[in-house]
Amino acid sequence: MRKNNIEEDIAEYTSIAERGYATLIANSGKIIAAITALVAALVTFTDISFLDLSSAEFTSSLLVLLISSYLIYFSLEDAGERLGRESKEYLSSAEKYNAARKKIEPDDTPRLREYTVRYSKDELEYRIKAHLCRHGYSFSEYTGYLIHGCADKRAEAVFKRASKMKIHSLTPRELLSAVHTVRAELVRPDREKIFSAVTKLLPSTLCMIFTASLILTTKSNLTPSLVIESLLKLSALPVIGFRAYVSGFNYSREHEASWLETKARILEGFLKERDNLITESERKAV
């Protein structure tokens, strides 16, 4: 009995936390607006002037704010993405995708390769036809242009744009991997490891270079106007932080979840085709 109570308490706490995060993200625009209003209110009590762009004080302040905003943005964006992967939309898409992925057998790989190639070609043809349809031309007119050319300048411009559309390659590895991978299948992971390490270390390296060269001195005569000036400079950081957090959350909840849904549909299409072929072969054997 006690165990059930603990599980219920955990579930309730999780639900409350999720509602709290959702409320925070839903009201991020209001929070940013409130910060902006506060800054505007502070500014009204002071006389405004701008530093010379070439001055040392401007350059040092700009460096501090740029590096701080850079680190805050990517840190909170990553935190937002992790929270987005706990959303109902993402979890639902992941469940659907994992269910389809588990049905793929090892000996399906050759057929899956052929299927992804055909799917990519059909997808390109669909985009071309949709582009032509939007501008009032048919696919037969486009194929005629590829063979004989076209005298109509407007039609030629539409057809040229269609001819420049590229195929979006798709591989079994990309379809069957739950994480983002390179498109090629036969790529050793140690090649990606170096680039990934450099990318992750770059923000820390920039911060280290900056802090190692930093010299701090206390400001004398800390007047109210100086306090307001400092608050005004720092006011951009929480705005950037909120924007990054919401951006990361929406990226996982919407874009990553949508990509999982797309991969699930492609795999389901392949599984349906595979099952139909197996049924057809069994019927012929009888």
Please explain how this structure is put together.
- By secondary structure, the chain is an all-alpha fold.
- It contains eleven helices and no strands.
- The protein has helices spanning about 1-25, 30-45, 55-85, 90-100, 110-135, 140-150, 155-165, 170-175, 190-210, 225-235, 235-285.
- The protein starts with a helix and ends with a helix.
- Mean pLDDT is about 75; it is low at about 5-10.
Q: What keywords describe this structure?
A:
286 residues, mainly alpha, 78% helix, 0% strand, elongated
Question: What percentage of the residues does DSSP assign to strands (E)?
Answer: under 5%
Number of strands: 0
Overall 3D shape = elongated
- Which structural class best describes the helix and strand composition? mainly alpha
Our measurement of the CA-to-CA distance between the termini, rounded to an integer number of angstroms, reads 57 Å
Low-confidence blocks of residues: 6-11
Helix fraction?
over 70%
The largest β sheet comes out as:
none
Contiguous helical run count:
11
Specify Rg, calculated over alpha carbons. Answer: 28 Å
